Amino acid sequence: MSKTAAPALKTQAEKPPADPARSLGLLWGSHRRPGRSGLTIRAIVDAALQVADTEGLDALSMRRVADAVKVGTMTLYSYVPGKDDLTDLMADTVMGTVYADVDEPRRQGDWRAALRFVAEKNWALHLAHPWLCQLNRPRPVLGPHFILKYEAELRPIDGIGLRDVEMDALLSAVLTHVGGAARVYHGLRAEAQASAQTDQEWWLTQAPTLDRLLDVRRFPTAARVGQSVGDEVQAAADPEHTLRFGLERLLDGVEALLAGRTG
Amino acid sequence: MSKTAAPALKTQAEKPPADPARSLGLLWGSHRRPGRSGLTIRAIVDAALQVADTEGLDALSMRRVADAVKVGTMTLYSYVPGKDDLTDLMADTVMGTVYADVDEPRRQGDWRAALRFVAEKNWALHLAHPWLCQLNRPRPVLGPHFILKYEAELRPIDGIGLRDVEMDALLSAVLTHVGGAARVYHGLRAEAQASAQTDQEWWLTQAPTLDRLLDVRRFPTAARVGQSVGDEVQAAADPEHTLRFGLERLLDGVEALLAGRTG
DNA sequence: ATGGCGTATCGTACAATGTACGAAATAGAC
DNA sequence: GTCTATTTCGTACATTGTACGATACGCCAT
Lengths: 263, 263
What we know:
2 copies of one chain form a homodimer. By secondary structure, chain A is an all-alpha fold.
């Protein structure tokens, strides 16, 4: 029927092997060894970070990065196997900027203070690099800075009475929570910017449309709570409140668990 | 320089207005009104869901969907303004499959049982539709099924002693937690499938490479905990454990808060 | 039945993307 | 200075979302 003569059809999802050893080696290797043109992996990653931080992940293309470092597009591929590896490098790189050293979280006091500190720093990380929760790498990155960050975040909750897997689960819960709040936060920001309005104005313009559609009779709770949340968003402090509330509940829950074990 | 004669350059991020009223109207409108070819929005969304569920979000293209419903690609655009709106419709549609009715969570018992039920159902939702945590819509979808789900999830925690914004924050924390666990879960699954190995085998093949790179002297805690987590993953039950641990801590924390207020 | 009108259909086209391929240029070894 | 291996990068291609316009069809007045 259609005249398109497909040269090859992919019924299965077939990707090139994506050698994990190669990727790991890249992450852990030296990024400062210059090539013939004086270019380094470090410089490529820095340029990519610059683009992503200032123009968003959508603007991050291989051509764009190549232009930024003044080489031909394909030259990048002699430094980095592909775009995914580049984003891995970007992610691992910013992981190195979170803590001054591997014991900084530990120095904040008890484990509660440390986890609050961890949450704060990760929140700041997501604010500085909005693309972090956009890039959708399925596998964890496992670069050196990531491991170091993991170590830094585990230390203050080591020995407080949790099993190893519980420590991991707790940390994962905190980080996931921060990431989720950041996603919401950026969603609101993007919305505001897209409509060239403030968050407040967005809710005001959307309210009439929603009111007509959202029947208070059918959705009494949702309508009331949504209204309250909308009011708070107008008051501007919202996603951080959500973040703090969930975090404190989580910490209280851990405290209860520990108390139950020692008591 | 380059011979590409760009007809228009975008220095700024300029998107077509993406009329929110239009999108909302589409979400809340009738999806069963057939066009001249007998096609309906419902049928399009169903076909898109089929593709995304079975072949992944990467395989979801307008051409693919159009083929599935046996129309020309551009015909879709007389039903749906664009791909983003289609994914919005997909998301809202599956939101309607989570609960049997709006009071199902409430019927599970107290608020703890209800929230556990909510977490379970959302977990199942993410397992059935892996693309859910991949699609990166910045703004919330706000379709009818989404609102109904929100209502269903709010009701059991209404009147237990939380302020409105706290109810929203708590629910958001639970859902974010589930989503995060699901992301990890799918990451492991994808990894295993990509390498045509089981999770266990993946850890086994990666372990030697990692051991060489990951110095136990520099990362004692991370090395030990990572090892433990790896062992548990081999034991197969892991992401659900992480999910359950964080959830229970969160619930305990809420309980402590409520006890502090009434006591 | 027939003519006309409005809209649904959809073939073609275009800009953008990641990257495979292979020719050209260049640095280092002798 | 010549040879060789590697780096550089222009070109090309498949794939994506979707803008544009020509076409074809259903419906209504006649």
